[in-house]
Amino acid sequence: MTLEQKLINRFNKAIFDYNLIEDNDKILVGLSGGKDSLCLLDMMAKRQRIFKPKFTFEAVHIRMQNIAYESDTSYLESFASQRNVNLHILTTSFDASTDKRKSPCFLCSWNRRKQMFALARKLDCNKIALGHHRDDIIQTTMMNLFFQGRYGTMPVILKLDKMPFSIIRPLCFEDEADIRQYAEQEGYVGQKKTCPYEDTSHRADMKRLLSEIEKINPEARYSIWNALEREGKLTEE
Predict the structure, then answer these.
(1) pLDDT the model gives residue 111
(2) pLDDT tens digits, 150-209
(3) CA distances from 60 to 35, 56, 90, 138, 170 (A)
(4) DSSP letter at 126?
(5) Domain residues for 169?
(6) Cβ(28)–Cβ(59) under 8 Å?
(7) With 60 as the cut, is the pLDDT of residue 2 above it?
(8) How many folded domains does the chain comprise?
């Protein structure tokens, strides 16, 4: 089996196991410009060519003015256009001095999410697709346990209380290593500048810790995933 087929099979399994995409869905895909979101857009475009389920989707790239990371927007436009996807490019910023209790990562994510939600409502989308993979979900579980004292993670599907749409994560069965290899194989062009906090965040710490744990137990990620599934942490109604 080729790497591409492995990714597609896992993508389809996520869709059907968690009922992530249904007939007549209109989906907004978050395209940050990193390998994960490029892979998500690619998989969504491939899936759309199949008769069932019948859905439409558009993409959005949100630039943050006051964080020194950058994607090549002309490349993103070309990438989306080649897959017949309409791409919206928005620019926003935030003022970290308004709430010094919150980290730049939190504020950046929160403000990007607000822009995405506003566009989803404007486009009358009923779902937003994000490019988080299995490693992201497991690392979030670890961060919640070690830093917040609670057992939970980012769900594969999350129905929002105050918004008329759900958050879905169709890459939830994909491993980051496979996505990285596929991105290299397909010649994805990565971000021109990566986030300055990328290697100093708690997520980076959890990534390193998970790698060490897997040296002791190579099946650790599957044990964590099975525990999340058994306790119903991967879906949130």
Answers:
(1) 79
(2) 999 999 999 988 889 999 999 999 999 999 999 999 999 876 556 555 555 788 899 999
(3) 15, 14, 7, 26, 17
(4) S
(5) 3-236
(6) yes
(7) yes
(8) 1
If DSSP states are collapsed to H, E and C, what string results for 133-162?
A: CHHHHHHHHHHHHHHHCCCCCCCCEEECCC
Please give the structure tokens belonging to residue 156. 């594969």
Range of lowest pLDDT (14-23, 131-140, 228-237): 228-237
46 contacts 147 by C-beta, under 8 angstroms: no
Residue 193 DSSP label = B
Cis before residue 53, ω within 30 degrees of 0? yes
With CA atoms as reference, report the closest residue to 168 among 61, 15, 43. 15
- The total number of residues shown for the chain amounts to 237
Sheet containing 56-64: give its strands across. Answer: 87-92, 56-64, 26-30, 127-129, 166-168, 157-159, 235-236
User: What CATH number is associated with residue 191?
Assistant: 3.40.50.620
Distance from C-alpha of 15 to C-alpha of 6, rounded to nearest angstrom: 14
Q: Is 24 left (phi over 0), alpha (psi -120 to 50) or beta?
A: left
Average pLDDT, the chain: 89
- Residue located via tokens 């020194």: 68
